[in-house]
């Protein structure tokens, strides 16, 4: 997966990544201001920038000092393109450094909340914000001087040039981080840049995303093309299918493979939503038996993932043969996947499988209408397309399903126990109104029996682990501080309602060092 989405919007702001933790956050803030944004590497050339015809450019922060060897730079011709540039933190220092300003090494850095003093009513960038305000700082070097053509519009005790602008040259910089919530006027400043400096129309909405994508899908698929989409029950494939259906109508066929490893009620819900409500042609393959057969004796987590992935492909290929003439395959690839695949040489932790994990040699042209979107934007598109909340707001669910939440061999009996326990966990979370705060909450069957006493009888039965995490993007996660009363209810219900379980434990491991799933 490489490349960028074709023409996803008329106005684009490029966020140049200088190795910041915050590049994605900046891109999101720009989108929240209704301007489409894309992250690009700092190695982008002026010609490449020109070809993208951006409305504005934002330089992100970064961990380096402009003075060290190998510090990331930008092609200086970018400054001559007539496109307004806003630099943030390292980005601001780089603008100063490359445009005859001075960046000095401070005696000490500024980290965390800092008081900013605004000068000259804040120039155009900080206009409308208070004379003193809290901003979030995270820097060691500081800009100490800028050429006369620049106006210094704010300072802090350790950053004499905490914000500057040269409106004629279209150059703006802030030493602090306007993209984080700890800078209360940050979003206002980003919007000043977009609206005032760039003249962006701020018309990018989910409705406009749908219109654009429908048009692009129609162009790609033409008047005759037939499309298939593998539904996983997850948000991404559901929204992608609904979007493609809007574009090509009954030339879309969805394939839903019931692996037998789905959550309780999941298969019925998919049929109900897609066939009945959305009126999308659905091939529903019940393949549980086949999956259980192949999973017999499989204990190793990676082997399990591979087995499930492989069987999924076999079943899908058989199903697709019944859709005559299909040349196009829908995939719910999201923007973070696109960004990551461009940069990632990280160690492999798990062989991820999802409906997108189909083999490379599959003979389809891919349709990826969500390639430019973040997860919350995909949810908003889903709602706009009329998908029900139960689909749009469902938790992420791994491609190998409950198979990676059962430690040891996967059997139909164990899946049945886990489905019941998992149902209770999710229902209690929903009843507590925590659905949207919790990234994922589910049950795990660790394959451990323990001794208990129920009704004066000795028991020797399964333990269930409750796993609930909060997260922004699943790259890192924290165990959710669920109220004791809620944990108590879950525990009582699981033991009383799920036969064969006599003990419940709560997983208090964050990621890292744990992963969200157990396998
Ligand atoms: P881990 O366990 O690696 O999971 O912390 C991170 C997120 O990814 C989900 N997950 C998967 N999603 N195919 C998927 O589509 C997979 O094979 C897979 N494995 C894990 C997991 O539920 C969590 O949200």
How does this model look, in words?
- With 519 residues, the protein is of the alpha/beta class.
- It has helices at residues 23-32, 46-52, 90-98, 186-197, 206-221, 235-248, 266-277, 288-295, 301-320, 335-343, 375-384, 389-392, 412-431, 484-497, and strands at 12-17, 36-41, 56-59, 85-88, 102-118, 132-145, 151-156, 159-166, 171-174, 226-231, 252-258, 281-286, 326-330, 365-367, 440-444, 449-454, 457-470, 478-479, 501-506.
- It has 3 domains: 12-197, Class I glutamine amidotransferase (GATase) domain (Rossmann fold); 206-392, Rossmann fold, CATH 3.40.50.620; 406-506, GMP Synthetase, Chain A, domain 3 (2-Layer Sandwich).
- 32% of the residues lie in helices and 25% in strands.
- Strand 17 and strand 18 form a beta hairpin.
- It is globular and about 80 Å long.
- The two termini are 25 Å apart.
